């Protein structure tokens, strides 16, 4: 069974969380989507790369969420969300997912 790369899970959590909050007009519901994806990603980060890497990526995930808010005031909401999601995906791929590609799991 193929696993979904953690980069996709993390980026989807940021984009999906914002989308759910925006379209449902219920911010807590978006927060639940964000947190659920973050929890799935964190579990896989820890399993695949260890606790230190997982902790660092969890911190980045929270920072990406928080950082998207002031960035949105400068470039707009959706561009901000996509920018931080892309950054988070890149960080996750570099720290964890590339290992699956090059066989060093």
Structure description:
This protein has four helices and no strands. The protein has 105 residues and is an all-alpha fold. It has one domain. α1 (6-24) packs antiparallel against α2, α1 packs antiparallel against α4 and α2 runs antiparallel to α3. The protein is globular, with a radius of gyration of 14 Å. The chain crosses the membrane at residues 52-71, 77-96. Keywords: Membrane, Transmembrane, Transmembrane helix.
Key phrases:
mainly alpha, single chain, transmembrane, 4 helices, membrane, 105 residues, transmembrane helix
In helices, the fraction of residues equals over 70%
Count of β-strands: 0
Q: Determine the structural class based on helices, strands and strand pairing.
A: mainly alpha
What is the average per-residue confidence, as pLDDT, rounded to a whole number?
A: 93
The number of helical runs is 4
Distance between the termini: 16 Å
How many discrete structural domains?
1
Portion of residues in beta strands equals: under 5%
Radius of gyration equals: 14 Å
| Sheet with the most strands, sense and barrel status | none
3D shape: globular
List segments where confidence is low: pLDDT < 50 over at least 5 consecutive residues: none
Order of helices and strands: HHHH
Quick structural summary:
The chain has 105 residues and is mainly alpha-helical. 89% of the residues lie in helices and 0% in strands.
Task: Explain the layout of strands and helices.
Blueprint: H1 6-24, H2 27-49, H3 51-75, H4 77-102
Helix pairs in contact: 1-2, 1-4, 2-3, 3-4
